[in-house]
Amino acid sequence: MFNYTFRWNQALKSLPQMLEGALVTMEIAILSMVIGIAIAIVLTLFRLSPLRPLRAVAAVWVEIARNTPALFQIYMVHFGLGSFGIHLTPYLSLLIGIAYNNAGYLTENFRGALTAIPETQTRAARSLGMTSLQAFRHVVMPQMLRIAFLPMTNQMVWAILMTSLGAVVAMNSDLYGVANDLNARTFRTFEIFAIAAVIFYLITKTITISARLLAARLFRY
Amino acid sequence: MIEIENVRKSFGSLEVLKGVSLTVPKGEVLTVIGGSGSGKSTLLTCINGLEPIDSGRILVDGVEVHAKGTDLNRLRRKIGIVFQQWNAFPHLTVLENVMLAQRKVLGRSRAEAEAEAVRQLKHVGLGDKLSVYPSRLSGGQQQRMAIARALAMSPDYMLFDEVTSALDPQLVGEVLDTLRMLAAEGMTMICVTHEMKFAREVSDRVAFFHQGVIAEIAPPEELFGAPRTPELQKFLAATV
Ligand SMILES: Nc1ncnc2c1ncn2[C@@H]1O[C@H](COP(=O)(O)OP(=O)(O)OP(=O)(O)O)[C@@H](O)[C@H]1O
Ligand SMILES: [Mg+2]
């Protein structure tokens, strides 16, 4: 027989703290997505650029982001930069690490989306006198973002889950960090992590469902 | 005036334009006919600088298209082009399609661009489709929208590349009517087309493209009435 008695009451008392952690988790995920999308758009332009060095930057970024553990990426931001004398807070390290990972995956998603947009779109835009940047910005990019919308939602979910990797940089204000601290103090391991898991689940479900609703509204064409 | 002087152009080892010379004065309607793969589309995309050329020159109002210092984006404002494949911007409504370049390229205000877009769309008979997305338009309507989009830039020249060849037969008429209307209004036009009846009706001159050169060029009565080269005779016999 196992002699673990569930004490949900005690664990539930920490719910407000965990919800606060959840807010931090969402904040990091949202910021890391905004930054990740912005960088992925720039990397996509680098990829399309005639300049080799720019294409190389994009290629290296994507390769590292997609082929090394996200945990290493966050670790490197914190301790790697730290060894060069750049000391970031756990919050910033986690945010930058996730944004780095997001940008890599999203760039790859954008590449796929671009193959679905015919070259004639750019030609039509250029024929109207638009510069190549205008053609990208106003004609290609909106279509690319639409096609990549679902993969972007997946990345957002992934970003939420990646916040738990903040543990490696001693991040303690996000949902996982709060749960971890509570566990250390109360030893209600199962209850606390079960509650945290439910919160994670509810957040990611909300994201997937609202993304679907948003897509229906945004993309009427 | 568009002046094309001995233009040559290859794709890899395939020489597509083999010394094309042609002058299109303001106000002229020139139609270009010729077999598939003879280089007609290539010539049009060279005129607005979408394709580079290997030798020769193309001048539009005295400006050399492929010269180093030429501002192509500026030059392209003068030259409207409508392609064979429909290329409406699918994420924008019909109205927005026609407004976009006006705003970004010409710097017109929203109100100005919208007024001009509405005017051009009414002109081509799409006044009731302003807020529709292109996916809801028929092929003929999409082509007319593309024409309105080009016209809204107030171009001095219009280039049409087989704008009816991807259309169902019953939709060809409405697009050709739009072209006829433009011709009647005095627009300078180069129309690549397979529609011989149309070419006969609207053209000031017809050019017959064959194997990368203009094999014959003449007013329609002459070109269709008394084709001189055996190639043209053969081509006309095959298309009737
Ligand atoms: N971007 C390109 N790269 C390589 N070859 C090309 C390219 N564009 C055209 N060609 C080739 O150049 C030749 C002329 O093409 P073009 O499209 O100008 O002919 P066309 O007279 O317009 O024919 P059609 O009546 O079929 O439209 C063809 O053999 C075509 O395969
Ligand atoms: Mg063609």
TrEMBL record, chain B:
Matches recorded under PROSITE patterns: ABC_TRANSPORTER_1, ABC_TRANSPORTER_2
One GO cellular component term noted in the UniProt record for this chain: plasma membrane
Pfam family, one: ABC_tran
Subcellular location: Cell membrane
Keywords: Amino-acid transport, ATP-binding, Cell membrane, Membrane, Nucleotide-binding, Transport
Domain of life per record: Bacteria
InterPro entries xref list: AAA+_ATPase, ABC_ATPase_HisP-typ, ABC_transporter-like_ATP-bd, ABC_transporter-like_CS, MetN_ABC_transporter-like, P-loop_NTPase
Stretches assigned to the ABC transporter domain: 2-236
Gene Ontology terms, MF aspect: ABC-type amino acid transporter activity; ATP binding; ATP hydrolysis activity
Membrane topology of the entry: Peripheral membrane protein
Major localization listed first in the record, in broad terms: membrane
Family: Belongs to the ABC transporter superfamily.
PANTHER family: AMINO ACID IMPORT ATP-BINDING PROTEIN, GLUTAMATE_ASPARTATE IMPORT ATP-BINDING PROTEIN GLTL
Protein's UniProt name: Polar amino acid transport system ATP-binding protein
Biological source species: Oceanicella actignis
